[in-house]
UniProtKB/TrEMBL annotation:
Coiled-coil region list: none
Gene3D superfamilies associated with the record: Aspartate Aminotransferase, domain 1 (3.90.1150.10), Type I PLP-dependent aspartate aminotransferase-like (Major domain) (3.40.640.10)
Protein name per UniProt: DegT/DnrJ/EryC1/StrS family aminotransferase
The keyword Metal-binding belongs to this UniProt entry's keyword annotation: no
Source organism superkingdom: Bacteria
Organism, as annotated: Streptomyces fildesensis
Record-level Gene Ontology MF annotations: transaminase activity
Amino acid sequence: MMDRQPLQALGIGVGDEVIVPSFAPESSAAAVVMVGATPVFADIDPRTYCLDPASVEAALTPRTSAVIAVHLFGHPAPMRELGELAARQGIALVEEEEPAGDVGEIARRRAHARFLDSALTGVIVPYVEPGAHHVYHHYTVRIPGNGRPDRDAFARALSRRGVRATVSVPTPVHRLAAHRSREVLPETERAAAQALSLPVHSGLTQRELTHIADACNALGGLL
């Protein structure tokens, strides 16, 4: 979870703007507010769910002092591209990492993800950027259809089949009362309406994984 210390160490405060993702935990935006600065929300890459460098560049103003990159669901943010952008603009790049787990846990989650990647039909499985090391803190799929009603119906149907799926970002941060803003973030809104995280923790058995895949496939992707 992000706290204010990295921003304080950079001297960021009142009058500064910090670019953060909206499709993410609230902690990044909250840390910006705690030091007196203003969070500015940028859109995501629809495949990785991490900040889109092009959207970050479009959000820059003379008051921008930093960008906070969040590694979401276990997929790393595009640190090279964001670092190059930050260097060109003379602003700071702050990295917010998720707890990943030990090597054995990560290996198990990756093995589970590979099985689900090959077994699932009717949903859009997680994308992994070439060369990226996804640790699958969440295994987040897209439910095709008409957005939130179909996604929520899919989750309820899975629950009736004994599969507990979760909506990891039910409301984008820029639409929360404490951070409400006017930014137009179409990919963020689309992801918030379609994304659903399936169980992928290291303790799952092969039988449980097969049941997850069979339950999803039986629904056909769209209710």
